[in-house]
Amino acid sequence: ADESSREVADISASLDEQSAASNEIAGNVEQIANMVERNSNEVCAAAQIAETLEKLADEMQEEVRCFKVS
User: Fold this and answer.
1) Which of 8, 9, 25, 64 has its CA 20 to 30 A from that of 49?
2) What is the C-alpha radius of gyration for the chain, rounded to an integer number of angstroms?
3) pTM for this structure?
4) Burial 39-54 (b: 16+ CB within 10 A, else e)
5) How far separated are the first and last CA of the chain, in Å rounded?
């Protein structure tokens, strides 16, 4: 009976450890998902800024076309 109780206690302890590890993994996966979402948002913002800069460069090029360098 003592041996069975010890085995049950060992199994219970192992299950607790597995549960804690699973919870930690789930938390890490959630953090990674949040980081991916933030990175995606930043990439979109950077793409919009690049597009704006390209338009400004085109506009500036049109503005200086009328000037000639001697």
Assistant:
1) 64
2) 30
3) 0.65
4) eeeeeeeeeeeeeeee
5) 103
